[in-house]
Specification:
heterodimer, A: about 120 residues, mainly beta, 7-stranded mixed beta sheet, 4-stranded antiparallel beta sheet, about 50% strand, B: about 120 residues, 6-stranded mixed beta sheet, 12 strands, about 0% helix, about 55% strand
Chain lengths: ~120, ~120
């Protein structure tokens, strides 16, 4: 069974641009959550989706948004990029439970660099 | 506020020696507890989890962890470290205070294995 797939692996963007990251969960998994990983802040929760509905949201500005499609694939979008948005963005899926009480299966992440 | 502490940023262990990585959390009730491992350029992989029951849990790759309620700790152990265990290890704590779900990661401990 294929794991969690994130595309692209690397992105370089300029301040002020916007970016869309994609995540395909493990087949059959309905819950997808997103995390931002930086050396300074560590792993920070962005949001969680289940059956196309946002179930939970972290403390990030409105420039960060996401959605989930009927096939459970998810995208996250960051608008008006800032230098501080440079990070590894990780997507994780779980079978049905919520991120706080279920084993998560992570993708290898998208490395976003904002210049 | 709830928090997760991994007091050791780096740990160096000789190959074949035993390992213990510390994790402490602050939360009144028993949370959901996880240990994840991240190799360079990769996402996180679940090592083990504790939800309830026997406080000593076994995971993959020969790892185990013990939940100690009185100390609010969930330390990870391995009796004999292999060079391939060099990676970063994250403790994560999930809880649901007053209906709001949270999954918080510790700042991680980087394990170096010396020959």
């Amino acid at each position: 069974k294929a794991g969690v797939t994130q595309t692209p692996r690397y992105l370089i963007k300029t301040r002020g641009q916007q970016v869309t990251l994609s995540c395909s969960p493990i087949s059959g998994h309905r819950s997808v959550s997103w995390y931002q990983q930086t050396p300074g802040q560590g792993l920070q929760f962005l949001f969680e989706y289940f059956s196309e509905t946002q179930r939970n949201k972290g403390n990030f500005p409105g420039r960060f948004s996401g959605r989930q499609f009927s096939n459970s694939r998810s995208e996250m979008n960051v608008s008006t990029l800032e230098l501080g948005d440079s990070a590894l963005y990780l997507c994780a899926s779980s079978l049905a439970g919520a991120a706080y009480n279920s084993p998560l299966h992570f993708g290898n992440g998208t490395r976003l660099t904002v210049t | 506020a709830q928090s997760v502490t991994q007091p050791d940023i780096h740990i160096t262990v000789s190959e074949g020696a035993s390992l213990e990585l510390r994790c402490n959390y602050s939360y009144g009730a028993t949370p959901y507890l996880f240990w994840y491992v991240q190799s360079p350029g990769q996402g996180l992989q679940l090592l083990l989890k504790y939800f309830s029951g026997d406080t000593l849990v076994q995971g993959i790759k020969g790892f185990e962890a013990e939940f100690k309620r009185s100390q609010s700790s969930f330390n990870l152990r391995k009796p004999s470290v292999h060079w391939s265990d060099a990676a970063e290890y994250f403790c994560a704590v999930g809880y649901k205070p007053t209906g709001f779900q949270k999954l918080v990661f510790g700042t991680g401990t980087r394990l170096l294995v010396s020959p």
